[in-house]
Amino acid sequence: MEMAQPESLAELLNGRRAAIDASWPAVGFLIGWLVFHSIWAGTAGALICALGVVFWRLRRGDKPRAVLFGLLGVCVAALVALRTGKAENFFLLQLLSNGASVLVWTISIVIRWPLLGVVVGAVLGQKTRWRRDPDLLRAYSRASWVWVLQYVIRVAVFLPLYAAGQTGALAVARIVLSWPLVAACLAVSWWVIQRALPAGHPGPRHPVIDEPRPSGPANDAADQPA
């Protein structure tokens, strides 16, 4: 039996939950930094929160690869901060990844491989079938610009704070621009997809593909007027 179409991208991609999980290490870092004003305390707090998220998600049966990848990112960020002796460098990886995301998502739209379509198509097991639906391709392209804007907002906020060495403000910005911004991005991009698709389109789960008719004498004769 075919599954019902998801009500939103948030349900389909679990984006809000992932963003909330990603916020906890920043909360731990902020607490450690404010209480002890120490890079070691901040990174320890971040790692404790990251390990807590991993333990909780694994107990709930989530895929270990996803949660362990998040833990690896926190470990790298902590190592950069400790090796450089600058607390603000805990957020350097986040700044660079958001800057790279602006570039990659923009390129994907320009070359007509919008990353939102790639991600949703992979989740739905469609591979590249969605690209053969012109309406769905256009909808994903327009909605992907919302994601580009999300990354631009983060870079615009993180960069001046990082340059000024405002560690506490960076941690707060990291928290505020995680799940609230992701939730807004998911909601707006879903609205854009719905607005871009023509009336009667079955939605992302069901790409509308006009399969070419095979050529042959029988088909050619059928196309001839009576």
TrEMBL record:
Species of provenance: Actinoplanes cyaneus
Keywords, alphabetical: Membrane, Transmembrane, Transmembrane helix
The keyword Cell inner membrane is assigned to this record: no
Transmembrane segments: 30-54, 66-82, 102-124, 145-165, 171-193
Pfam families for this protein: DUF3159
Protein name: DUF3159 domain-containing protein
Keyword Transmembrane assigned: yes
Region feature Disordered, mapped onto this chain: 203-226
